[in-house]
Amino acid sequence: LIASLLLTPARKLMWNRWFFVGGTLAMLIFLPNLIWMVQHHFPHLEVLANIRRHQLIVSLNPLEFLSQQVLIQHPLTLPLWLGGLLYFFVHPQGKTYRFLSWAYIITLVMLLAMNGRVYYLSPSYPMLLAGGAVWAEEWLAAPRRAWIKAAFLVILTVGGVVMAPFALPVLPPERYVQYSTAIGFEQPRVENWPLGALPQPLADRFGWPEMAEATAKVYYSLSPEERSRTVILGLIYGQAGAIDFYGPALGLPKALSGHLTYYYWGEETAKSVPAGATVIALGFVFPGFSADDLKPHFESVEIAGYTHHPYSMPFENFPIYLARGLKVPLIELWPRLKNWN
Question: Within a 10 A sphere around the Cβ of 171, how many other Cβ atoms?
Fold first, then answer.
């Protein structure tokens, strides 16, 4: 946004005292995050590098990226937001806000250069839709064009109804599958994971309560004495988060994970887990992680349960491992559990 202001006469707004007040306030709000990142050597950059290295995100060329922008924003709105982009550049009144179009273009170029996810640009479109709507209202004000306005609104509404199930969870899963099959449309992938019946944005909504319940079943199969020295370990933050969200009602302890910020959250708890402890391990089915990674560090490792949901992501259907007799204090293994992908 600052770069776009510098490119246009709107740069004079930057010398308004409220610009500095607002910028200072924004910086103060963000400052704790910045301090944390400096203290931890900018872990987010390490995560992004790992994601690129392991090709976890679907890589798109510029044309594919732009075509998916059209799809994500609903194809029939293209005349409005593209018109808004032009409105701020060429219209006598719109030129006052030309920096908004530059902000969109600069952000687009940055995302193309960094192989960003397609939906990262979505917050930019309301301002373009607003500009396009103003220009469209002006152009459609002529009485002879009234039919175009009515026709476009009907087409836009019908198209929105057709596309709604792909943007919002308005259909039951089985109906969604039937619907998407009938019209021959699939949501574009954003990550390189095997899919089940549903696309990832919908599949990620399923399986979490069942995972917590299956974990609780394993946990309560243990004697009270063994439960007192048992910890739950999720391979990824979603699994640990499911235990932390649904677990309290089931009497489960908080989960540990080496994934992303859970790596930091669990470090103090890991220091208190002694040798001889029992671990209920979730999700060891990812590339690079398996039950074989557990076996050298425990006296015994066995499958004690399963979690499954027909509509969840396939990798969230897995055996639950019961690992007994931790050979060293957990904190000694903690760096090996770090998973920043």
Answer: 16
